[in-house]
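Input/output pair, single chain:
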Amino acid sequence: MSAVTGLADRRAVLSRRNPLAKLAAAALLGFGLLFSLDPLTPALALAVDLAAAPLFGIAPQRLSRRYWPLLVSAAGVAAGQLLFTPAGVVDALGLGLRVLAVALPGVIAFASTDPTDLADALVQNAKAPARFAIGALAAFRLMPLLGDEWRLLRQARRARGVDAGWNPLAHVRLAGSLAFGLLVGAIRRGIRLATAMDARGFDSGHLRTAARPSHFTRADAALIAGAALAVAAIVAISVAAGAYHPVFS
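Output:
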C-alpha cells in the first residue's frame, strides 16, 4: 500500500464519491470483461479507465510509474498463453489486455479512497459488522509493513551470508523461505492486533457511534450507473465492429 500513498488528489470530483460506489463501479467494469476473449473489448475498457483516472485525481503518467508490476504481470500472462497453449497472438493479446482492464478499475478505486472512509462506508452504508470493518481497516493500514518486513528479512539473511548469487533455483528457494517467514510474522501480528482490539471493546456487541457520517448520494448512484453504461457501450462497440468473442462460443 505504500505505492498508493499520495497517488490520488482527494479534491478531485470522483475521488470524493462514496467508497462503496467506487468499488461497485470498479466491480461492474471488471465483471463486464470476464466474458470476452477478444483484444478490442479490454482495449476500449482500458481507454475508458485511463480517461477517467484524472477525474479520480490520478494522473495516467503517475499511475504507470507506480503500477508497472501490473504491466509486467499482464505481459507474462500473455507470453505464457502464447508459448504454452495453442492460442494465437490475438488470443494472447486479448488475455493480457483483459488482466490489465480487470485490475485497473480496482487500482483506481482503492488509490482514490481513504481506508478510514472505506471502513465508515462499510459500517454505515453497507451495514457491515463493525468488527469486520475495523479489522479490515487495521489490516489495510498494516499492509505497508509487509514490504518493510520483507526487506528486513532479506537484509538479515544477507548479513548471515545467505545469498542466492546467480543461481535462479536458489533465488526461488530463498524467496519461498522469505515468504514463509513473512507469513508467520503476519499471523503473529494479526493475533496480537485481534487481542488488543478485543481488549479495547471492539467485540462488545454494543452499538457504536460514528465520528464521521458517510452518505450515499445521488451522485454516487450516478457513478455506478455510468459504469454500467460504459460497460454496455464497450460491448456494443465491440459487437458492432465484429470483434466481440464471448467465452462461451
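The radius of gyration is 21 Å. The chain has nine helices and no strands.
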